[in-house]
């Protein structure tokens, strides 16, 4: 019998192995058997893929029903399906370490690596803790989807309770600072009850990440980019520094114009901008205030796409059909009939749904759908192309082995549809009869400004969400500083401030879908850089030689071929390979977006002469 000391040491060793994710128990680990072989690794991967595929499909079905019909029961069912997937993936990730150091084919090696970082939400192996975590995750998403603000007596927002779509419409169109402030505050109040749940969520998810051998959940998220996690973080900072001067010029100009509209009492001419004045609930895209900041003294774009869509009698269905037609014009197959039967295009009146737009590949093969509460406006016309981009990408990579049914990285997936939307140029709108004639060359500035308000303004926003989450996951941002740290980041990167005082009873991060929805966000920052690289390459493949903001790849099978070749790689290769197939380049590079906006950038610098920019 072993002495107490020996037993303690043995227990400590086992605990260490468990913590490092290396302890499988003697039988499972094949302790008593010969060392693992490459053939076993291949068999393991094959079995793992079959098991995961089945679990993913169950999870997608439960998730689809949950988001389309928010009730207590659907939340529980979705949580259970999620839990089963997480438990199996955690087990497979640990088992995969058995083959570490073996000489394997690149395909098997990549699949083993992908299994180890497949989860966005890892969970502790303790069954009760895992169930608690998935239940919280489902509840948080449900709380977001159900969120409503009920104004008090005498409110400018009226007497009825308002959902996010209604409040967002106020933020987009109202020019009354009091009304804007109330719509902003009202929505942000809905997130307060999420705070404690989120704190617990972080605790449990981190425990799961540690069981997989990661320092915390943020480290797991950063490991998915075919480079060391620290190198990825450094890459983001490098790209941000490339685009920061352009953003600061835009901020400076927009601020000056907002002072003209609202006065120096509302907008500090030298300071940050109030976040509710920029036309979007999160100040993430500013296109809705184009009318306030349009370049003066030069021809405008000559059209307002929202008005044109309405005037031409577009409804949700026609907007999606038009989007699909863009993709088929590139030579891609039409979406299956089931897409039209099973998608959700319009917000139902009789039940609660998660309106935040998403694209689904329910059976991980042909059953593609989008879920969206479409409104007939320019923003949703863009979002439709974004979501369809996911579906077309999914259909292409769903022909691969299950572990490769994904984007080259998540930024690629987010960039694809946006790339197509960059081709919604005047030339294209004329072609499909939404405008009568292309505006003259002098309207370029207006066109570039309209797009910069969405794409350039987004860049610092895209960075801050996960800068915040990475800090939260690592513990650098403790729960009693959640909200303060959030606004510190918004101020530093975006130069925006909340319209009303905030405190630690608030939980403003929860007012943005991806936080309660646990969707990593750096993908959108990457996408905003990549889509300009993609657009430049595809426009060239399509033989477009003019300025890129006038180029459209509509109807170009050459561009479609190039795109499809990239999509068909799924996640089977490191992303630089996929980037090379599409663009001939192997690095993410902000030059493309900077070149695209170069004429605007020069103009902004001239306008801002004599102004003190920054905040
Ligand atoms: O969440 C989305 C898509 C769904 S994947 C609608 N986007 C980000 C957001 O809305 O915050 C697209 C752009 C950024
Ligand atoms: Zn997306």
Describe the structure.
Helix 11 crosses helix 19 (444-474) and helix 21 (522-541) packs antiparallel against helix 22 (557-567). Among the domains are: 4-119; 305-338 and 376-441 and 523-597, no CATH class. The chain is mostly helical and 615 residues long. A two-stranded antiparallel ribbon has the order 1-2. It has helices spanning 4-19, 26-29, 38-68, 72-96, 106-116, 127-146, 164-173, 177-189, 194-211, 217-222, 229-262, 290-293, 305-311, 316-329, 337-342, 378-397, 410-421, 426-431, 444-474, 482-494, 522-541, 557-567, 575-583, 591-596, 598-607, and strands at residues 148-149, 162-163, 273-274, 358-361, 368-371, 496-497. Helix content is 58%, strand content 3%. The chain has 25 helices and six strands. It is globular and about 80 Å long. Residues 1-27 have low confidence and may be disordered. A hairpin with a 6-residue loop joins strand 4 and strand 5. Zinc ion (ZN) binds at residues 386, 390, 414. L-captopril (X8Z) binds next to helix 16.
């Amino acid at each position: 019998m072993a002495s107490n000391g020996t037993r303690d040491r043995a227990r400590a060793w086992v605990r260490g192995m468990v913590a490092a994710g290396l302890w499988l128990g003697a039988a499972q680990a094949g302790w008593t058997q010969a060392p693992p072989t490459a053939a076993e690794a291949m068999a393991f991967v094959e079995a793992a893929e079959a098991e995961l595929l089945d679990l993913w499909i169950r999870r997608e079905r439960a998730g689809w029903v949950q988001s389309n019909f928010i009730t207590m029961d659907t939340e529980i069912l979705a949580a259970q399906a999620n839990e089963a997937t997480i438990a199996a993936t955690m087990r497979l990730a640990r088992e995969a370490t058995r083959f570490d150091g073996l000489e394997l084919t690149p395909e098997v090696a990549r699949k083993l690596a992908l299994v180890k970082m497949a989860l966005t939400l890892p969970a502790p192996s303790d069954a009760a803790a895992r169930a608690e975590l998935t239940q919280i995750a489902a509840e948080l998403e449900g709380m977001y989807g159900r969120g409503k603000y009920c104004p008090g007596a005498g409110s400018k927002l009226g007497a009825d309770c308002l959902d996010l779509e209604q409040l967002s419409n106020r933020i987009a169109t109202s020019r009354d600072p009091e009304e804007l402030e109330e719509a902003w505050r009202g929505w942000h109040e809905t997130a307060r009850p999420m705070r404690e749940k989120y704190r617990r969520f972080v605790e449990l998810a981190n425990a799961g990440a540690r069981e997989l051998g990661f320092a915390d959940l943020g480290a797991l998220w950063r490991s998915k980019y075919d480079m060391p996690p620290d190198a990825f973080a450094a890459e983001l900072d490098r790209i941000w520094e490339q685009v920061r001067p352009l953003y600061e010029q835009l901020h400076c100009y927009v601020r000056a114009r907002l002072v003209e509209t609202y006065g120096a009492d509302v907008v500090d001419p030298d300071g940050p901008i109030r976040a509710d004045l920029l036309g979007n609930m999160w100040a993430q895209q500013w296109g809705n205030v184009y009318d306030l900041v349009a370049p003066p003294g030069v021809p405008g774009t000559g059209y307002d796409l929202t008005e044109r869509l309405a005037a031409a009698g577009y409804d949700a269905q026609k907007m999606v059909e038009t989007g699909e037609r863009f993709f088929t014009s590139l030579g891609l197959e039409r979406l299956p009939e089931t897409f039209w039967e099973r998608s959700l295009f319009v917000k139902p009146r009789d039940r609660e749904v998660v309106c935040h737009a998403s694209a689904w590949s329910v059976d991980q093969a042909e059953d593609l759908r989008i879920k969206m509460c479409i409104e007939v406006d320019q923003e949703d016309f863009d979002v439709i192309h974004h979501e369809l981009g996911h579906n077309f990408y999914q259909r292409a990579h769903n022909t691969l082995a299950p572990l490769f049914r994904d984007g080259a990285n998540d930024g690629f997936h987010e960039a694809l549809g946006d790339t197509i939307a960059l081709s919604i140029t005047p030339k294209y709108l004329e072609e499909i009869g939404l405008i009568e004639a292309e505006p003259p060359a002098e309207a370029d500035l207006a066109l570039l400004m309209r797009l910069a308000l969405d794409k350039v303004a987004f860049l610092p926003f895209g960075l801050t969400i996960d800068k915040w989450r990475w800090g939260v996951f690592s513990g650098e941002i403790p729960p009693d500083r959640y909200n303060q740290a959030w606004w510190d980041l918004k101020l530093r990167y975006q130069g925006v401030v909340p319209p009303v005082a905030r405190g630690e009873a608030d939980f403003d991060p929860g007012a943005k879908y991806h936080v309660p929805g646990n969707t990593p966000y750096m993908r959108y920052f990457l996408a905003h850089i990549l889509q300009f690289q993609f657009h430049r390459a595809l426009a060239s493949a399509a033989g477009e030689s003019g300025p890129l903001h006038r180029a459209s790849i509509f109807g170009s099978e050459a561009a479609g071929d190039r795109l499809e070749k990239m999509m068909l790689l799924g996640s089977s290769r490191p992303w630089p390979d996929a980037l090379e197939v599409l663009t001939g380049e192997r690095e993410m590079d902000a030059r493309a977006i900077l070149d695209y906006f170069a004429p605007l950038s020069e103009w902004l610098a001239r306008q801002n002469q004599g102004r003190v920019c920054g905040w």
